[in-house]
Hints:
Blueprint: H1 6-16, H2 34-49, E1 53-56, E2 62-66, E3 76-81, H3 94-109, E4 118-123, H4 136-141, H5 147-151, H6 161-167, E5 183-189, H7 194-198, E6 202-208, E7 210-219, E8 223-224, H8 236-252, E9 259-261, E10 265-268, E11 274-275, E12 278-287, H9 290-310, E13 314-323, E14 326-327, H10 330-342, E15 347-352, H11 357-361, E16 367-372, H12 388-407
Parallel strand pairs: 3-4, 3-5, 5-16, 6-15
Antiparallel strand pairs: 1-2, 2-4, 6-14, 6-16, 7-12, 7-13, 8-11, 9-12, 10-12
Amino acid sequence: MFEINAERLWDTIMETAQMGRTVRGGICRLTLTEPDREVRNWFVKTCQSIGCTVTVDEMGNIFARRPGKDSMRRPIAMGSHLDTQPSGGKFDGVFGVLSGLEVLRTLNEHNYITSAPLEVISWTNEEGSRFNPPMLASGVFAGVFYRDFAYAREDRDGKKFGEELEHIGYRGQTKCGDHELGAYFELHIEQGPVLESENITIGVVTGVQGQRWYEVTVTGCESHAGTTPMNLRRDAMLACARMVQAINVIALNHAPLAVSTVGLVEVKPNSRNVIPGSVFFSVDLRHPDDAVLSEMDKELRKMVKKVAKDMAIEAKLKNTWNSPSMKFDKKCIDLVRTAAEESGYSHHDIVSGAGHDAVYLARVAPTAMIFIPCEKGISHNETETIRPEHAAAGAKVLLNAVIAYDKAL
Ligand SMILES: [Zn+2]
């Protein structure tokens, strides 16, 4: 078994955590912003300095390739994303990319040349916080979205994805999806409490639950907060509040596996003495079983209609993104499990509650994921924390799963 350099891996994570660092010790590195450019430049330079050939495709995905003995073979890829939520942590995404880098550094030290080339990939806009939908660029790579659909996505300020990509200098020449991957392994923090609560080091991820996103616009009537009698109001915020409550109940009705969230709300005109005339909000529904998810979808549509009718307001619901539940490749899963077993780490099969680039990659290449615990399961939060020994364990499993895949070719 190869050993990775735990200290080097940790130091590298801490080094990139400076780019977009927030005062509370988290990271704000929204996709295609200045901190994103900064970390991309760092990643490109670092990969080149260890002998990789770096290419950037037309979606800004970065591929760092280490040659194998047989250049005709499709590369075995490792990767994740470098972007974060507005108040993100130091590990979500970047941990998977930097562990890939650590794998290459380790192999360089051992002068170990794989048969197939290896690639470390950073996917653009995994988070979907600035540009909806998430996993946008891995989606284009896998043929789920068209490039021009992606370019036309707008952030809340009306800035277009394509122009912002150009602006930070990462609109590459290579066509997105131009080369096939032999396999794809993504290491990630769990972002949930299961591994920690069971005292397990490695999560062998067998699949990802289904997920649907919606946008709701509620339109009532703006009017004076002092002079409009209660019975004559058409308060868009009140309608939104009732819907938010009902959306929570939809998930509770499908307990324990269903989850539902309203995480983004914009009130107009957002003034303390004006009755809100319009509210925009997002809805996120998830469940491991697509049939249950369809049931939740029906309940959501029915409920929005009913609240709108009862309150004599207008409500438009748009389904903006669906990601069906996904099962990973059996052979890749087995290699992850074996690597964990042979390293002497406790491990457990687990279904991911979060979406990941691996979901789309699984459509075009044999794919698996590796999870490590994060403290109290907290993620998408500046306090997100992992233990250095777990980070090292995850990277070691990644390395040995990749090597095993290559040996079996
Ligand atoms: Zn992530």
